[in-house]
Specification:
Elements: E1 7-8, H1 11-31, H2 51-54, E2 59-62, E3 65-68, H3 70-79, H4 81-87, E4 91-94, E5 105-108, E6 113-116, E7 125-127, H5 128-146, E8 150-156, E9 159-164, H6 168-182, H7 185-190, H8 197-211, H9 213-218, H10 223-248
Parallel strand pairs: 2-9
Antiparallel strand pairs: 1-4, 2-3, 4-7, 5-6, 8-9
Helix pairs in contact: 1-3, 1-8, 5-8, 5-10, 8-10
Length: about 250
């Protein structure tokens, strides 16, 4: 319980954190694809010839829906004082983990408890909702990508088909995640000063996908995995942005 105690972040520093933890981080990882023209695509394509072409498209069709290039949305967020205010971290506490995916947890059968592994170590104060975004991103598709439980193809110009192969239990956990944590008394106390915590967790989820692109290329040596997280991040970021537009409208 004491570990969930958080401090309020001054506005100027919180805007810097928005840039460092989210906007610049995602932009740099997306643009990494510009230097990856030598990677041979390892999934069926009809028009895409190389990875750099992917981020040159203004719009991308995923499973029959059109989405804006994520770089354009990140620029819009930076240019909007309203969106920057919604998405800036308002609280910080000690870094609980830094990469808190379900893949970095093990279950102790004797103690009947979950234990975190592969944490980042001490890095000072941290955005408390960053790790909750990591949990959401594991549930919504990253776990399936890491386990190879998905299919990907490009079936016409700018049109991708991405299918995740997950269990019904996993899908239910993802769908109910925000409601589940909102009922936790410690979490409610943590986010007292975070009026937009739902939007921020959704935003963090999208950013985590986009920021994972180089890891899937360099660690997995798999363009298919990198494109999958790019598409999932693009989809989530667009959905998040549409929520902002609907709220304003």
């Amino acid at each position: 319980h004491e570990a969930l105690e958080a401090d309020t972040v001054p506005e100027d520093r919180s805007l810097e954190q928005l840039e460092d933890y989210y906007l610049r981080r995602a932009e740099g990882r997306i643009r990494f694809l510009q230097s990856c023209g030598d990677f041979e695509l390892d999934f069926p394509t009809s028009n895409l010839a190389s990875l750099p072409e992917l981020i040159q498209r203004e719009e991308i069709e995923i499973n029959g829906r059109r989405y804006r290039n994520p770089l354009a949305i990140l620029a819009d967020i930076r240019d909007s004082s309203r969106l920057s205010d919604i998405l800036r971290p308002r609280i910080e506490n000690f870094c609980a983990h830094g990469d808190m995916t379900f893949l970095n947890m093990v279950f102790d059968t004797k103690a009947k408890t979950y234990k975190l592994i592969d944490n980042r170590g001490y890095i000072g104060r941290w955005d408390a909702l960053y790790d909750f975004g990591k949990l959401k991103f594991t549930l919504s598709g990253f776990g399936q990508v890491m386990l190879g439980r998905f299919s990907l193809s490009e079936n016409k110009k700018d049109s991708f088909r991405l299918e995740l192969q997950g269990s019904d239990v996993l899908q239910k956990l993802n769908t109910s995640f925000l409601e589940d944590i909102s009922r936790n008394e410690n979490f409610k106390e943590l986010v007292v000063e975070e009026p937009y915590w739902r939007e921020r967790v959704m935003f963090a989820e999208a950013i985590h996908y986009l920021s994972d692109i180089p890891h899937r290329l360099l660690l997995d040596q798999a363009p298919k995995n990198a494109v999958a997280v790019f598409l999932l991040g693009t989809e989530r970021l667009n959905d998040c942005y549409r929520v902002f537009e609907d709220e304003q409208g």
